[in-house]
UniProtKB/TrEMBL annotation:
Residues 2-85 form the Pyridoxamine 5'-phosphate oxidase N-terminal domain. It comes from Blautia pseudococcoides. InterPro entries: Pyridox_Oxase_N, Split_barrel_FMN-bd. Gene3D superfamilies: Electron Transport, Fmn-binding Protein, Chain A. This is NimC/NimA family protein. Transmembrane segments: none annotated. It comes from the Bacteria. Signal peptide: none annotated.
Length: 130
């Protein structure tokens, strides 16, 4: 999981895909954290992406670094604990003007039953389950 976290951090921005009804929705994201042995992402409760993940937790993430990319499929599981929110936000001081642990808007989701695939045009894909 550390390798996956490191790749996402290096990329800075990755793309998160959700669904709204039968329509795919994709947007740039930038938060990632490892907390209690799980990979987490963060958003705001008021955002459509939050509603989409709660309605259908099946997500995909895609990140690219030069000619290498990472795709992750997983279920996003909401973790309402303030400790998980604080751990995430401690790593993102720039977000602390918009989000506060326990503010009723900050949400963190961990990835469950995740499958990460590292790939490129030249290397065989490498799959990690976490």
């Amino acid at each position: 999981m550390q390798e996956i976290y490191d790749f996402l951090k290096k990329c800075g921005t990755y793309f998160l895909a959700t669904t709204e009804g039968s329509q795919p929705r994709v947007r740039p994201f930038g938060t990632v954290d490892i907390f209690e042995g799980r990979l987490y992402i963060q958003t705001g409760k008021v955002k459509d992406v939050s509603k989409q993940m709660q309605s259908n937790p099946q997500i995909e993430i895609c990140a690219c670094d030069g000619g290498h990319w990472l795709r992750i499929t997983a279920a996003a599981v909401l973790d309402d604990r303030v400790e998980a929110q604080k751990h995430m936000l401690d790593g993102y001081p720039d977000l602390q003007s918009m989000y506060k642990p326990g503010d009723g808007n900050t949400q963190v989701f961990y990835l469950k039953d995740a499958v990460a695939t590292f790939a490129s045009f030249t290397d065989e894909p490498r799959v990690i389950h976490f």
